[in-house]
Amino acid sequence: MTETILIVMAGWLAIMLLGVPIFASMGLAAAAFVWWGGFPGIVIPQKIAQAANSFPLLAAPFFILMGNLMNSAGITERIFAFAKVLVGWWRGGLCHANIIGSVIFAGMSGSAVADAAGLGTVEIKAMTDAGYDKETAAAVTAASATIGPIIPPSLPMVIYGVVAEASIGGLFIAAIIPGLMMAGAMMALVWHMARKRDMPRETFPSLCDVWVAFRDAFWAIMAPVLLIGGMLSGIFTPTEAAAVAAFYALILGLFIYRDFSIRELPRIILNTVETTGVVLAVVMCAVLFGWALSVSRLPQFVGGTIIGWSDNPLVILLIVNLLLLVVGCFMESIAAILILVPILVPVALQVGIDPIQFGVIFVLNLMIGTLTPPVGIVLFVISKVADLPLERVTRATAPFLVPLIAVLAAISLWPPLTTFLPGQVFGR
Predict the structure, then answer these.
(1) Cα separations (Å) of 214 from 83, 87, 126, 224, 339?
(2) Which pLDDT belongs to residue 414?
(3) What residues contact residue 101 under an 8 Å CB cut-off, 6+ apart?
(4) Distance between CA atoms of 8 and 28, rounded to whole angstroms?
């Protein structure tokens, strides 16, 4: 069976390279395995239906809807204005404001692409108008966008939790410290760059300026507070939190900020349905493909091979990190999670690595991949937003890989960075 799945996987990679959508290529590969292995055809609809019938997966469309509503409600300008009055007066202050804005926005969108496209338009224009060069503005915006899927809510964390059968609430809480560490590490790099390049700074704000910016952004800032606070207190599950957050975003856009009308709701809902449909198609086909991998015993073969090299958890994490950093250069994050989690999580569990820690490491690796060519999706988005060639954006962003990899190393070497908060909240 292992030889069969390897042949099927080779065929899957070949048709995917020909431009066949990833969900279709995975579905075709799994169907070929079912036929070749002599399994009854009823397995295909059973596994696809089983994948869709998932309560935790309900969080995905609600978080997508929340992000779309927030992007339509004029939230980005208010968040960036608030971040600017906080740190804009520092040397290179708009770079710091860019990062802080992404931390706040991360608590609403859960998507690196949404962060890059939503905040990016506002931030890059503000920075270039203030005298920053386009490359610096684009690089900071691209790097800070990777915080989006780390700080909860996070669509990749939801997908990982569903596939790995790990606590989504635990993953959300575990990612808070690494997300803040990412912001701190990037701000440290910006501080060094600002002094070296003599970057501009904004005038020191008056108390009135601070109050106005805080007042305008208050209800937006309360979104992540509502989300995380509700989960920490046990008032609602992550799936229920997603529904509450979407409803909150709707009230915010229609009645608080009034930046969109009911007439725009069909467009927003249609965008949400389209995005959710793509995600769900990938999930369903990936679950079928994951079943094929499991039946073929490929995960056991790969796990035995890796553990044959070493059963030291740190060595295993080093191997996994290197593998995922390479994979992230060539594969979109959700697809990588769906394909590799069934193979790598059993290996992690076998050597005693906490599945929550492993999940945060997994997602952070793939977020770093969004900044690396040839398939760095955030680089493509920022290149379009900033109207810069991809090569220039890639070169400018490269220094920000250093603090991100430093955080990745820290959470790999010291598990309490990801396990302490879930332990306090859930008694794990």
Answers:
(1) 9, 13, 19, 15, 43
(2) 92
(3) 76, 79, 80, 82, 83, 119, 123, 144
(4) 9
CA distance 364 to 61: 22
Residue 43 confidence (pLDDT)? 81
72-89 residue pLDDT tens:
666 777 888 888 888 888
Give residue 288's identity as a one-letter amino acid code. L
| pLDDT for residue 90 | 87
- Tell me, what's the pLDDT at 359? 92
**The pLDDT value given to residue 54:** 67
**Residue 230 CA: distances (Å) to CA of 193, 196, 417:** 38, 43, 22
Sign of the dihedral defined by the CA atoms of residues 319, 394, 371, 374, in that order: negative
Task: Quote the tokens at residue 74.
Answer: 């004029």
Whole-angstrom distance, CA of residue 422 vs CA of residue 179: 15
The pLDDT assigned to 177 comes to 92
pLDDT of residue 287: 75
Q: How far apart are CA 23 and CA 16, in angstroms?
A: 9
What is the pTM (predicted TM-score) of this model? 0.80
Q: What is the pLDDT of residue 409?
A: 94
Low-confidence ranges of the chain (pLDDT < 50): none
Which amino acid type is present at position 122?
Answer: V
- pLDDT of amino acid 1: 59
3-state SS record for the chain: CHHHHHHHHHHHHHHHHCCCCHHHHHHHHHHHHHHHHCCCCCHHHHHHHHHHCCCHHHHHHHHHHHHHHHHHCCHHHHHHHHHHHHHCCCCCHHHHHHHHHHHHHHHHHCCHHHHHHHHHHHHHHHHHHCCCCHHHHHHHHHHHHCCCCCCCCCHHHHHHHHHHCCCHHHHHHHCHHHHHHHHHHHHHHHHHHHHHHCCCCCCCCCHHHHHHHHHHHHHHHHHHHHHHHHHHCCCCCHHHHHHHHHHHHHHHHHHHCCCCCHHHHHHHHHHHHHHHHHHHHHHHHHHHHHHHHHHHCHHHHHHHHHHHHCCCHHHHHHHHHHHHHHHHCCCCHHHHHHHHHHHHHHHHHHCCCCHHHHHHHHHHHHHHHCCCCCCCHHHHHHHHHHCCCHHHHHHHHHHHHHHHHHHHHHHHHCCHHHHHHHHHHHCC
Task: Please give the single-letter amino acid code of residue 160.
Answer: Y
Q: What's the pLDDT score for residue 113?
A: 67
Q: What is the 3-state secondary structure (H, E, C) of 390-422?
A: HHHHHHHHHHHHHHHHHHHHHHHHCCHHHHHHH
